[in-house]
Amino acid sequence: MSDQLRSARLRSGSLVLRPWLPGDLPALLDAYRDPAIQAGSRAPVEDEAAAERWLRAQEEGRESGLRHSFAVVDTALGTGPVGNVVLVCPAQGSGRAEVGYWTAAPARGRGIAPQALEALTDWAFTVFAADGLVTLELLHQVDNGASCRVAEKAGYGFAETLPAHLRWPREGHRHERRAA
């Protein structure tokens, strides 16, 4: 994996999407105190040790090329992360990958999530086009109406309702966006 891919930084308006840093631990802990983030998370962060593991997992994912997680910083609000967007890379040749995101409570309602998701989407389709990436999927629990709205604003159409399973205790929605 190239150093450029490992250290990728994206910009969209006042947003900067950058790799997570060890100094982001306090912002990560604050964000995960929010019950809405806890409810939608597949990897809860309950204490400082869990936050350190989470940050390490993001770095390892980026190093391996299998997961590209970006801290979302809105420079209009300050210098610390107010959200996260992630691209989980598929098996070679599948043509599909998964995206995810969260936004800290104080930053919600400002359009940050759809804007960050759009920047990640454009980046993913550009960077991984040669690998055959043609479809991005966004999954969320069926009771998360805010995620439906974010998906739609970022051009991810509703694809189907998924049954509950181990990753999700309730039914879920799958949205998808195809490369232009």
Brief overview:
By secondary structure, this protein is of the alpha+beta class.
Notes on the protein architecture:
This protein is of the alpha+beta class. The chain is built from six helices and eight strands, in the order H-E-E-H-H-H-E-E-E-H-E-H-E-E. It has helices spanning 3-6, 25-32, 35-40, 48-64, 112-127, 145-153, and strands spanning 10-12, 15-18, 67-74, 81-88, 96-103, 135-141, 157-162, 172-178. Strands 1-2-3-4-5-6-8-7 form an eight-stranded mixed beta sheet, with helices on both faces. Helix 2 packs across helix 4. The longest helix has 17 residues, at 48-64. The chain starts with a helix and ends with a strand. The relative contact order is 0.14.
Notable features of this structure?
180 residues, alpha+beta, eight-stranded mixed sheet, globular
Structural topology:
Blueprint: H1 3-6, E1 10-12, E2 15-18, H2 25-32, H3 35-40, H4 48-64, E3 67-74, E4 81-88, E5 96-103, H5 112-127, E6 135-141, H6 145-153, E7 157-162, E8 172-178
Parallel strand pairs: 5-6
Antiparallel strand pairs: 1-2, 2-3, 3-4, 4-5, 6-8, 7-8
